[in-house]
Amino acid sequence: NPVGPMSGFTTTTLTAEGGPWLLGPGTTFMGKDATLVIEPGATVYFPPDSLLRVRDRSTITAIGTDLHRIQFTRVPSDGPEKYRYIWIHSGGTPNNTLSHLDMRYAGAVDNRQMWITTSRVLLDNVTWSESTSKVLRLVDPYSEVRNCTFPADTGECITGTGFAAGGYFILDGNVLGFAANDVIDFTGGKRPGPIL
Predict the structure, then answer these.
(1) Contact between 46 and 83 (Cβ < 8 Å)
(2) DSSP-derived secondary structure for 145-168
(3) What pTM was estimated for this model as a whole?
(4) DSSP state for residue 78 in the 8-state scheme
(5) Which residue among 9, 23, 154, 164 is least packed, with the fewest CB closer than 10 Å?
(6) DSSP letter assigned to residue 29
(7) Structure confidence at residue 108 as a pLDDT band (50, 70, 90)
(8) Residue 176: exposed, middle, or buried by beta-carbon count in 10 A (0-12, 13-18, 19+)?
């Protein structure tokens, strides 16, 4: 049985052996300056309409491996319902990393699976599946997206707006699924400031 529901995090480590782990309903907040570490092979279940919110200089470090990928998914017993998304708005200083991670069944509302706002984030070898919602929504990012796999039929896989001073958005080595319209739709970012 899953461990939880967890309604919030201070400084916490989620292991594969101790789980699977269950978030609480609604919004699960990370506390100010908190650190959430998710170890290789761990599984985190999201109830319907739930989301994880990384804020106030908090940090998420979820680093799997090729053989022990981290899983973010819906609760198996909840049927076809999806959860909402992960929202990272921890500020431009903490380094957030999600690597070798599979994110499935997200995007229940707001037409996004992950939202990154004015935060320093590395996404490496992340896959998204089992959803037709847009994948990434970026606002003033400091973000790198490398070696990730984006699904087809999500419309615009990546949408974004603007760059903060010193901001950046790097795409490298990704596989972008086919879409009937733009795969990437990014506005803002004009010379002499940062551009995409």
Answers:
(1) yes
(2) EES-BPPSSSSSSEEEE---TT-E
(3) 0.92
(4) G
(5) 164
(6) E
(7) confident
(8) middle
